[in-house]
Amino acid sequence: MTNPFVHVELQTTDPKKAQAFYKKLFRWKFQPIPKMNYTIIDVGKGTGGGLMKHPMPGGPSSWRAYVQVENAAASTKKAKALGATILVDTEEVPGYGWLSVIIDPTGAALGLWQPKARRRKRAQK
Predict the structure, then answer these.
(1) How many DSSP H helices and E strands does the chain contain?
(2) 15-30 confidence digits (pLDDT tens)
(3) Within 13 Å, how many C-alpha atoms sit on residue 27's CB side?
(4) Is residue 37, in this structure, part of any structural domain at all?
(5) What order of strands is seen across the sheet that includes strand 62-68?
(6) E runs forming strands in the chain
(7) 125 in a domain, yes or no?
(8) Residue 78 domain boundaries
(9) Which of 20, 42, 89, 106 is 20 to 30 A from residue 32's alpha carbon, by CA?
(10) Euclidean distance between CA atoms 38 and 15, whole angstroms
(11) CB–CB of 114/70 below 8 Å?
(12) CATH code (residue 58)
């Protein structure tokens, strides 16, 4: 399995202002998920992302990339063994998959993403 970048997330101090800016700049579309306080960013073609209010009061707005992994828990454990600090340990995003956030040995944050397995539809005869 390769490990492509699969999601980019904006943690912002002002979600409405950010949405207005990126909608005008790139014509991105936004799909809110109210029960999660999260908004999906539809960029059209290419890797999409999400947008949320920064979880740490006073934290600066920033973008975070997520890399797809086969097993989020195992990859998080391996990253820790290789010298990473675990910022967010593996947690489930109900209905979507699992994520964790690591800080690599140089201080850069990176998200790990394991999508929920999708059931394949049986081919109709």
Answers:
(1) 2, 8
(2) 999 999 999 999 999 9
(3) 2
(4) yes
(5) 29-33, 38-42, 49-53, 5-12, 62-68, 109-115, 97-103, 85-93
(6) 5-12, 29-33, 38-42, 49-53, 62-68, 85-93, 97-103, 109-115
(7) no
(8) 5-98+105-115
(9) 89
(10) 10
(11) yes
(12) 3.10.180.10
